[in-house]
Structures are given as C-alpha cells and as structure tokens.
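Q: My collaborator sent me two sequences in one message, no labels, and asked for predicted structures for both. Can we handle them in order? The first one she listed is below.
A: Yes, handling them in the order given. First sequence, followed by its structure tokens:
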Amino acid sequence: MDQKPASTVEWKSVADAFGFAGDLLPAGVIRFNMPRKDLHVTVGGVEVKPGLALGAWAAFRHVGKNDAMVMGDLVLTEEEVAPVMKTLADGGVEVTAIHNHLIGESPRIVYIHMGGHGDPVKMARTIKQAVSLTKSPFPQGGGAKESDDIGFDVAAVRKILGHPGNVSGGVLHFNVARPEKLTEEGMDTPPSMGMGVSINFQPTGNGKAAVAGDFALLGKEVGPVLKVLQDNGVQATALHSHALNDMPRLFYMHIWANDDAQKLAHVLRTALDKTAVKSGG
C-alpha cells in the first residue's frame, strides 16, 4: 500500500470547502478534525477535554481521478442528531452508525459515524453544512507542538503500551493499526482512515488519568478483551460497528476508566495482547 502522505495541492479544493487545513496522513489520506470545544461534558466528576472523547473528524482518500471515499465521526447533542442526519443524507453522505461512546456523561452525547464515495468537494460541503447546524467552532490554523509534561509520566505510559503516542490538546493519544488489510465496500481503508485502535489519556491529577477510546476487534477477540477490562476496573461503555461493509468485520469496544495512568496502561497493554495487534507498531 502506498504509504506516502497526501499533498496539500491535491486536496486544496476540499480544504477550501471546509475553510481550514486538514492533516496530511500516510496512504494519501487527509483528515479534517473538528473537536467539540463548545461542549462542557463531564463523566464521574471529570470534565472531558475535546481530545479525550469529543473529537469529530472526516478523513478522505482518493479512489479514482475525481473520486474519493470519506469516513468520519460527528459528536452531537441529542437535539442536533435529527437535523445533522437529514443534511448528511440529503447530500449523499451515509450514516453508518448512531450510538454512545460514554456512559453517565452530562449532557448526553450521541456519535454519528458516516461514510461516502463520490465527489470529494460535494461530500466536504455536505459535512461542513451538517457541522454548521451545531455550535461547534471550526478550527483556526494549526496548533503548536505541545510538551509531554501533562501531569503523569508520558514516557512510562508509552513504554508500557509499546507504541509512540502523541500529545495534543492536553491529551496523550495512541492510534494503533491492525495488521490486516482492511476494506470498506471493496475500497482499501488504511489505518489513517480511522479503522484502528484509539486510546486517549487525559491527566486528572496525582499521576492519574481518565482513559477513553476504542478497541477495533475481530469477533473472536471481543470476549477475551472484555474479560481483561472487566477484571481490571476498565469499563466497556459500548460495543458496536462503525461501518456497514467493512472486511474483515470489525467491532469497536469503547472504554472508560480514571485511575493511575501507568496501571491503566498495563491493563490496556494486556487487552491489546488478546488481539492480533503487536507492540512496537
């Protein structure tokens, strides 16, 4: 698979449709991040940073000369769901899942997963129109590189998990690819399209962290991963699909915990070891 990043030039018309620059990722993918910085969501007394569990996004990849696929995730309040869904459908962008990622959050948040295939500019305009129905602010330029000094030992957590991770928005992010070749409706969907394991650590004081994210799992991996989490105080908050025609079929197990960051890293590493995902990726 071509692992070269996309170029700014080839995606200029899509970036113009959104009104802000996207992040160029491997395998020719560009991703537009639209975090819900307008929302103040709490879970168990923890105020959730946008980077922990409120990150809306849309990722595009060319599959022909003037043809692209899009996959993404929108973060919505309950009253925003119906108008956003209608706008997506009217513009030819499919809703592929509607569900929770958290439990006990206030206010209640609903996540819409979306996908599409066609004219990338038309799909970008549709997604922007849908997001414009919410109070979500659109990004204004890129952020500066952030320090790893966010309130727990980031280096230790990276070492335990066996993956690099990066800090942005005051949150430590891990995105871990599965080893299989993944497709959606027969089109290659590289890890940069969002079909991997995502684990985020937000500092909560005294070396502790709130952890949220999701494991992308084959059916046979669901039970073993769930047992590790349940036996070690990490709550599975949702289990569902994100796409309609992915091969192999993946199920996404969303998680929540607030405990010592290194302790949680050990639990999550043990859970990853129940999957085909290897350390050091």
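Q: And the one she listed second?
A: Here it is, processed independently of the first:
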Amino acid sequence: MFRIVSTVVFALSLLLAMPVLGDGHEATIADIVVASAEADMPEFSTLLAAVSAADVSILEALADADAELTVFAPTDAAFSALAEALGEEAFGEILSEEGTPRLNEILLYHVVGGVVGSADVVAALSGAEADDMGQVSIPVVTLSGQALAIAGAMAEDGLDLSAGITVAEANLVLDMVDIEASNGVIHVIDAVIVPELRTIADIVAELAGADEPEFTTLLTAVGAADPAVLALLADPAAAVTVFAPLDAAFAAVEGLGDIVADQALLTAVLQYHVFPGTVYSFQLGSLVDDMGQAALAMANGSEATIAVSDMGVMIDDANIVLELVDIEASNGVIHVIDAVIVPSA
C-alpha cells in the first residue's frame, strides 16, 4: 500500500503544531490547515487564505466535527505555480470578492464526501480495468458536483506505485497521504486542480462557433425557445444533465422549421432533453432495473427511458455517443446523442 510511513517532517510538524482540543478529540481538517499554515515550516498558507476568501460555508464544512470528508490539499508551491500560470492579477481576482463563485468551485473540486484513505484508492485502482496502455482510472464526484479521475498504471504484479497516482492534473504526494482528522482525511497534491468553469450554455455556444462547428441547430433552437431554457443552461448554480443532439440529428427531423416556429412545442421538446440533476455516464448503470432500463423525469414533466445493454446506452430512440459523454460544465454535464427525442404527448 502507499501509506508511506515517512510522512516525516511534514506530518511531524503538523502534529507538533496541531491544537489540543478541550474534548480530547483530534483536530478537524480546518484545524490542521490552520496549524500547518502557522507552523515554523508553514504549508497550506495559501490554501488557508483561499478558504478564508471563499464562502463561509466551505470553512464551516472543513471545521464540522461531524463531517466525513476527503480533501486533496494543494501545497503552497502548487498555488504559486497556478499564480505564475495565470498571472498575479488574474490569480488575485480569484481570491477577491468578485471571484468568490469561481473560488468556491475550485475549492469544492478538491473535496470528496466520505473518508477515502490511500488503501481505498489503491484497492479501487487495482480492481479497475486497464486500457491498452496499461492505465487505470476511477471517477470520483466532488462536492463541486463535477467529477475528477484518479488514475495510475498497472504493472505485471499489480498497481505500479512507482509511476505515481494522479488526481485530475495533479500528482498525489505519496509520502503526504492519510493525514487523519476527526472529520476526515487529507491527501497532499502538487498542483491546484481546476474544474470546468464554463456553463452548458457557454460550451454549446463555443462549439457552435468552432472551426468545425457542432450544436449550431441546438443553439438556434435554444435561442428561439422560451427564455427560461437558455436561463437554465446559463445558470451557474444549476445542476442539470443535457442530452444534446448533433446537428445531423436535427437535420433528420421532418418539419423542423414548423417546430422551431412553435415556441411552446419547441420549448417542450428542448426541455425533454434536460434532466434536473447531474448524472455521469458511469452512474447510469446504477439507475437501471434488472431489465437494464430506467425512467427519467425530464424537465418538461415527461419521462424518458434510459436503456443500458451490451450494445450501448440509449435514451428513448437515440443512441448516446459513447465517445462524447461526460462533457463537464460548471452547472452539469452534456451527453451527445444521435437523434432528437420527442415526448409522447
């Protein structure tokens, strides 16, 4: 396992600096971050500044003795590298009051609900199916609502720890894992991981305007529908799953011009492609029954049928394009489909 005993000077400095709580319990995650930031050899000082600048609910969660959390904590050097990459002005804006929504998303992207120890990570990766390059990964949904991939490499005798473990774009610092707190565990990473900050509306608009455009008809349809449709897709606080038809899918619809001209009908059709809630492709299997099917209550009030089989995944009569699933947005996820689905009503 990679609970490397040499959490050495770093862990020792945490233990020496850690406050003694009156009730005898060990420190919370918030206590550990504060103690480390104020130690003789400080670490997590920028993380503490970021948490202090974010919404107060984040600090409250890390300080909640009854919580069960796993935090992937970037080092001060990791934050310095991000500041250099973005530029000091842009980095400062994230820590400012105006940047709080973005900062909240970034910080919550580093937190997973539940206590996930290093042994749990190794076991999950060891049981995952390797790709052609011998790489294994497991998806984990963070408190931001977005998922990240924890990945490693397989050797002949099992998981190759010498190749390292990655958490999104960061490396897990293998001698700084399993820092235990009363309300969870901290694993140190060497980079700040940044979630997708664009909304679904942003992504659709950008892809429609790309050199090889896609979703141009979807963008036109959203613009012609009730403004509430666009408002939902552009709402950074929303959490929705959009089954997005390709341009070719719209082109195959007979009488498309008449549908677009009828705002009420068009709105109902578009809302039928939206599920209120974020569902990733790896979560679909848990929704279906023994027959491999599930009914999803879509945003227009009608139910669509998800069917999972060895042939792939369908929603009603449309195939979910497996190469184009889990397009993440700050307010949900997009799965591309090859046909327009229409509510029976």
